[in-house]
Amino acid sequence: MSTDPSAGRPTSGSAAPAADGVGAGFDLRHHGDAEVRGADADLTDLAVNVRAGTPPDWLKARIAASLDGLAAYPDGRAAREAVAVRHGLPVGRVLLTAGAAEAFVLLARAIPAQRPVVVHPQFTEPEAALRDAGHTVERVILDERNGFRLTPDAVPEDADLVVIGNPTNPTSALHPADALAGLARPGRTLVVDEAFMDAVPGERESLADRTDVPGLVVLRSLTKTWGLAGLRIGYVLAEPDTVTALERVQPLWPVSSPALTAAEACCAPPALAEAARAADRTAADRAHLADRLAELAEVRVCGPAAGPFLLIQLPGAAAIRTRLRELGFAVRRGDTFPGLGPDWLRIAVRDRATTDRFVIALTKAIAESAA
């Protein structure tokens, strides 16, 4: 197996076991919210991918009204039906979870995989959950030279559990649906994390409504677009047998009544129309961010991008990130993602005025680092 000697990691298309400890040199438990906690809460937040200005007032009102029913145990039937209708699926193919992160834990416990593979760079919780459940995880590292796009031969043929994001966090790469569906094999569970798919105009390349792909598991989150990270609500779309297996390892009443109310509300037609408008605005704001970053010779923007964030590479990114904090901006470090290193940063898409202020600060931080 060939490796990149500068990073000690497998090259594109190869797979290697992740070592014990903190994930072969990567802090798999580090997330963007760590950048804006405590005394750093006043920083302009470009580290977390939750849409700014959310949740909307109408959604807060629906959630607040649900508090009158807290004396009763949660009943997820209406929310589960709403998710099923939203995707045109039978109810038996839907499982509600306390955010997509819980779904990774359930999969790690319920799926008896012998050769699990995680395609990186991507959200690190799937690998962390698998490792915590006692699995030996292999990594496939996609190639930065082609924008971290999936290649047909990247995944080992005998992998019986494959996890990939679409669009992928942190690369913002959107893989073709047919390419992902082509990863399906008899005896393989194919997990596609679509936590950011509702931020893609038209949700193009989604597999959420597909029932013809064997072993397919699609994960969705309502926390990004709707600003519900503190409420914890997401769901799994999968074959009924897989849903049943996940339910067996799920705690009783895992999703609270307010979260169930939010799921039902966010799947209603008016909410879907609002999310579609937000996706269009995000795409326009992302293009503005990419254009402004392109003005800086030191910055390389990974693309084409489809998510509500951009991945950039620039020399001395770690020191520049520290200086940006002094200038009032928090961005997400990239060196905790397998396949990346200290010269990578992830930047959340915000409105154009915020982007313009950020680029001024970034220009200053780069100039100071070169002085």
* Mean pLDDT value: 93
* Continuous helix count: 11
**Bulk shape:** globular
The biggest beta sheet is recorded as: 8 strands, mixed
Strand order of the largest sheet: 3-7-6-8-9-10-11-5
Strand content: 15-25%
Secondary-structure element order, as H and E?
EEEEHHEHEHEEHEEHEHHHEEHEEH
Distance between the termini: 41 Å
Helix content class: 25-40%
Residue runs with pLDDT of under 50 for 5 or more positions: 1-12, 18-22
Work out the number of β strands: 15
Helix and strand composition category? alpha/beta
Radius of gyration: 20 Å
Description:
The chain has 371 residues and is α/β, with parallel strands linked by helices. It has 11 helices and 15 strands. Strands 3-7-6-8-9-10-11-5 form an 8-stranded mixed sheet, with helices on both faces. A 5-stranded mixed sheet has the order 4-14-15-13-12. A two-stranded antiparallel ribbon has the order 1-2. The chain is globular, with a radius of gyration of 20 Å. It starts with a strand and ends with a helix.
